[in-house]
Amino acid sequence: MTQWYQLQQLDSKFLEQVHQLYDDSFPMEIRQYLAQWLENQDWEHAANNVSFATVLFHDLLSQLDDQFSRFLIENNFLLQHNIRKSKRNLQDHFQEDPIQMAMTIFNCLKEERKILTSAQLSDQMQVGNVQNTVMLDKQKELDQKVRSVKNNVVEVEQDIKTLEDVQDEYDFKCKTLQNRENEPNGVAQDEYKKEQLLLQKMFLTLDLKRKEVVAKIINLLNISEHTQSALINEELVEWKHRQQIACIGGPPNACLDQLQNWFTIVAESLQQVRQQLKKLEELEQKFTYDPDPITKNKQVLQDRTCNLFKQLIQSSFVVERQPCMPTHPQRPLVLKTGVQFTVKLRLLVKLQELNYNLKVKVLFDKDVNEKNTVKGFRKFNILGTNTKVMNMEESTNGSLAAEFRHLQLKEQKNTGSRTNEGPLIVTEELHSLSFETQLCQPGLVVDLETTSLPIVVISNVSQLPSGWASILWYNMLTTEPKNLSFFLNPPCARWSQLSEVLSWQFSSVTKRGLHADQLSMLGEKLLGPTGGGSLDGLIPWTRFCKENINDKNFPFWLWIEGILELIKKHLLCLWNDGCIMGFISKERERALLKDQRPGTFLLRFSESSREGAITFTWVEGSQNEPQFHSVEPYTKKELSAVTFPDIIRNYKVMAAENIPENPLSYLYPNIPKDNAFGKYYSRPKETSEPMDLDGPKGNGYIKTELISVSEVHPSRLQTTENLLPMSPEDFDEVSRMMCSAYPT
Question: What span, in angstroms and rounded, lies between the C-alpha atoms of 59 and 285?
Fold first, then answer.
């Protein structure tokens, strides 16, 4: 069963998240047509290898040609057109940059897997989950309120038609009686009184009906106000907070479709009320009296309806996808000068008359006081097309949206003497993007404005880790959308908050977050041995990101960032499989290994390497106490030459004049080494002799491989029986391996 098929079986709220992954650069049609083929390719490898990416790009075009031929046979003109358009878009976007295509597809597939996992967890937690039940009940309650607004509008519409019929009948009777009075014969006195009594009764009915309609409209507006207050002040606020959490690696945000549906129904209802009030005004112009309930209430009702509609539509203008560089999809809100970024706006009030009628303009740091109050605060210009018309055609789900795809930032250069000395460093300086448009309808003009979450602007990619730390800290600790002075006095974080966010940094780029033991070790590094287990322990911003940790010359966050990069590029499969214990103190490491059989080892990250490094420690039997040995940590330099599973497979320990042996037998607690890592070895363990010259092509070269060898002093060996002289054959073998590992 393909991943794509599994996705299509999910609920609509998860399907909406899938919709948001695809746009014109890589449309969903291609994902649909080539589902199996796309999932069978190694896009991660292609994203790091331009030659392989180019091959896959041309393979993809060939697959589209094959699909076009099938549509040609089926004589399906529309699908032929769509696939030709998709192919042209791919060529326009990726012909010169196939690696970008590979990254795009790799990220889409990875995000799909996250959505599937999230859906599975949702299913598992649904039964007996009180929180889900409460949320479901809340949604049902809100759904009923919205339906009540809609039903009340329909009821008022019927009442106005009835009122119009009553008024028309009354008007007809009045004119008929008046005409009969002017006739020569006139009307008999008794009959005239009867007609007058009938007219008076009809007038009372008319007056009662007008009062009833006005009362129902007042009640309808009360229900509308209460409903849209819940939408704006509760549901929308919660969605924005979930968006913040999703931006920093948390669970994917719930889709906007349900909110859009509610907003749109209430907006349509208010538009209908405006038309109903106009109809009442027409009836008033035809016939009025004192005291007329329409005359008395119409202005108040018109003003109130307009204000409710304005408030609803202004609140419905939201940033659906926060600013993000396509090159770093996992790190939104950090933008580099000169690099394109994207951002998507959406109007939750989806009215057909608004399609192509709202022109959105983007501005940088609009009305930001910090430009004048914070010394050294940088200023930027926006490059690229900074206006876009909202429409329903560009979004795959038909929402009323505008997506800016080609914006860039350029720093304004100060004239004269320039100083960068200020209270904030570059990566603590927060900025914002504002978006504004105007809705114009007969008798109604509404200004709409919304802002992005605060962004960090960097000028060098080396600033990205620190910039991302600022984004994490801000969105973890505040929901204020525009507190750009936040880092002038940043609050402390509780360990209960920070530990969850740290785990998200791993789960958002891999299949595995951090478990309690790993987090405990990290807590000790930040809070000390005594405070590491306290969820209420407070961690200052400087301790997290600026101060050197313990006796090292780098801060905590940069150490974590280096490990994340190491996992993503070299250890992803091992991390996902749970082979790497990773974060464990040396004391805890020895406590775990001391009771294990000789040759048991575990994998942990080095605490002394800023760029990220991994090592393994194994236990060795002894007559007295067990001995523990750790290898010098491997960094990206070594892991780029030899994969970590191959290092573990081929690792040798060699004492002076002794045959090298691999001391690694069991991955903690008792998994045979080859069972744990065998599927990741670069080739089967049983291979031809390295000196065998009869290869497949017979090119005459001796096959070589890099292996890791540690030299151990004889005194560290268990017994002296192993200190036998080498045979000439063994010496030649060791010499060959050493030459291979350290070529001249």
Answer: 72
